[in-house]
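User: Fold this, then the next.

Assistant: Folding the first:
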Amino acid sequence: MRWKPVVVQSERSDGSLVVAVGHPLVDAYLKFLRARARPNTIRAVAFDLKVFFTFVDQTPVRVTSADVMAFITAQRSGDGGGKVVSIGVGDDDFVRGPVRLEILQPSPRSLV
């Protein structure tokens, strides 16, 4: 059975936001991010990860650089088979230039 990413939000007893996508590795990253970012940023990252993993249809450990490039290409062209919305490159409302993708690597201590 394949993993289907779903964004789930809850609130801890101390009032802090908990956002999960349903995979231990991705959820550990969101936990890492929770200590460093505001709630709306965490929500946005969780949704972006859901969109990405829905598009590539792979678990995080199986994602390749080719999957990342296919996702970026689909965003740029709008050819995501309904899974990806074009970022509008070439439209006058957007700056033309390279797409820069940064993936933050949590330290092993932050995964505990």
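Now the next one, as you asked:
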Amino acid sequence: MLEKLLRSNVSCQLLQTQKMAGIIQFFEWQNIFVTGATGFLGKVLLEKLLRACPDVGNIFMLLRLKKGKEPTERVKNIISLLVIKKQKL
């Protein structure tokens, strides 16, 4: 039973690795346009792209003025959050 479970776990990990390799190849040298980059999912998407896809092309973000903050301020905030998160790892 334990041996079967271990084989199943190894197969699952191999499948996940293959899927991740496909994602990395898909985004390789691709330019990406992100709307909602300052929201929760947008930040998660940006972090994942930057961490997992080292050869991603340019990432363009559509930002608007919100609560009196200029888009440049909002971009700086996102970048600082991503840098802080990377330093914690």
